[in-house]
Amino acid sequence: MLDAEVESRFHALEHSAPAGFAAALRRLVQEGSDRELNRVNVLDFAARHGVDEEDAITGFVHAVRVGLFDL
CB–CB of 50/44 below 8 Å? Predict the structure, then answer.
C-alpha cells in the first residue's frame, strides 16, 4: 500500500502520462526491489512491462514532473 502523498502523485501521473504507463510504474514501485527502483532503464522497463518505448520515455518525464522519480 502506498501512502497518501504517493497515491496523489500517481493520480496526477494517470492524467498526464500515456495510457497504461502509470499502472505499469505503480507495479514496479510496489513490487520492485530497491535496486530496480534506483537503476531504472527506461527501455528495459518498456520491454518488461509491455509499454511502447516512446510512451515509457514520456511517462518517466511526467513521473519526474509529479515528483515520483528524480533524473
Answer: no
Residue closest to 61 by CA, chosen among 4, 21, 27, 5: 21
- Hey, what's the cell of 71? 533524473
Which residues, including other chains, have CB under 8 Å from residue 13's CB and lie 6 or more apart? 21, 22, 25, 59, 62, 63, 66, 68
Number of domain units in the chain:
1
Structural domain including 48 reads: 4-65
User: Model confidence over 12-69: pLDDT tens digits?
Assistant: 999 999 999 999 999 999 999 999 889 899 999 999 999 999 999 999 999 999 999 9
